[in-house]
Amino acid sequence: MGVTKQLLPFRGATILECVVSNALASPLQQIIVVLGHQAEAIAPKLNNNDVTVVNNPNYRLGQSTSLKAGMQKLAADAEAILFLLGDQPLVTPAIIELILSAYRDSGSPIVLPSFAGRRGNPVLFSKETFSRIEALSDDCGARPLFVEYAARLLTVPVENPAIHFDIDTPEDYQRLLQLERSDAAGKNAI
For the chain, which residues make up each domain, given as ranges? Predict the structure, then answer.
């Protein structure tokens, strides 16, 4: 991107503040925000929120280090963890609730949303998978667990393409802003 995408303006705040706001408006019981690159610039934006901020000094070693850093602050009695991406401000509290409900109803060790037959984010992992997440390395995130738990993985259909929309390029950001303008005009489309 050439800039810290989490700090880009969106809806009168930043992209990350919108993600955190959606998480706080959901039934999630604990919100942990893991910061890496530009943590010192991002952290002040989260001061007024009821979140735990974790600095991951090893973020350059890959996404798995951020997953593990966040898990270190997870409450001991947590049944599951939902990994939200800091560049997906359109993932709504309703999407989060749908994933949590599917987990509660199924007990599946991994629950992930799908739109138009394609998996997306955020993804929920039950306590059963925590030791496997701790064993991950590199920049693969938790994708290897999808293969390991394939027979018990639950895919939940959602009616919102936001689960596929993250901000990786300046074009993505411009598209996000255009979508917001379209929504404001009553066109509601991703």
Answer: 5-184
